[in-house]
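Write out the 3D structure for:
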Amino acid sequence: MDELLTAVRWYEEQRPGLGTEFAAACRSMLALIQDRPQMLRLVHGNVRRVLLRRFPYAIFYRHRESELLVLAVMHER
């Protein structure tokens, strides 16, 4: 969660409103993960990844039955 908040602040410093756009992109992908957690590809063991479209970030997560665990929101460079 710390990396996500740091990224939101960094984007907001680059251009007012951009941090809000980044946070919205993360929320949108989290909603997709909740709706269709099995749709996204496995990248390591039972860990899945989704890439944000506009920002160079990925969300890594695990899904088990009724549980969704976000492991990281990570810069891809």
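Residues 2-75 form a domain with the YaeB-like fold fold (CATH 3.30.2310).
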